[in-house]
Write a structure and sequence with these properties.
The chain is of the alpha/beta class. The strands form three sheets. The protein has a four-stranded parallel beta sheet. It has a three-stranded antiparallel beta sheet with strand order 1-2-3, with no helix packed on it. A two-stranded antiparallel sheet has the order 7-8.
């Protein structure tokens, strides 16, 4: 139902099974297999205890960003996903800390949601390393990063929507070549433009 408000045909949603497994779906297509620790905070804490992890910072997978949608749908989507993340973290607020997502296709809306999310309890935001053809040297994206700097909001930049397409279908090449290339593109866009 929430996904349909963003896009009834392609928006991401969670399909869960009685055995504790599930899939992040994009419309009717499986995107990624997942299991109960994704949606059950008690299970997450059990695993953290087992593995000796005191605190975990978590954020949505980039398929959740919604950058391709009009801001009128993407902004409420980001707000709902951010509120869900805080509900998850509330199970163990000293141990589970959330990064927010923002509707980065609209800089004013992204700044508002970053500030709202921080005030609500998020410890920072996660963004993609580009929005369509706009790299991190885009003036609007620089404005968003400056807003976060002024507000004391840490930003995690996640490589996503990888270049390479048909040339990288084997051997995990999208993650071995394209993800590092997207990371370098983001870093160099900021450095060479004088963004920081």
């Amino acid at each position: 139902e929430e996904a349909a408000q963003l896009d009834s045909a392609k928006a991401p949603w969670l399909r869960t099974n009685a055995d504790g497994t599930g899939h992040i779906m994009q419309g009717d297509q499986p995107f990624r297999p997942v299991y109960a620790a994704l949606w059950d905070p008690a299970r997450r804490i059990e695993e953290m205890d087992r593995d000796g992890v005191d605190l975990q910072l978590f954020c949505a997978t980039p398929v959740m960003f919604g950058y391709a949608y009009p801001v009128e749908r993407a902004a409420p989507w980001a707000q709902r996903m951010n509120d869900h993340a805080l509900e998850f973290a509330a199970h163990a607020p000293q141990r589970l800390k959330a990064l927010a997502q923002v509707p980065l296709q609209d800089i004013d809306a992204a700044c508002r949601e970053a500030s709202r999310a921080k005030a609500a309890g998020h410890v920072g935001v996660q963004i993609g390393n580009h929005v369509g053809a706009k790299n991190l040297d885009d003036a609007g994206l620089i404005d968003f990063l400056a807003h976060c700097g002024r507000e004391g909001i840490p930003v995690l930049v996640h490589p996503w929507d990888m270049l390479g397409g048909d040339r990288m279908k084997q051997w995990m090449l999208p993650w071995l070549v394209a993800m590092p290339a997207e990371t370098q593109l983001g870093i160099l866009s900021l450095i060479l433009s004088g963004g920081f």
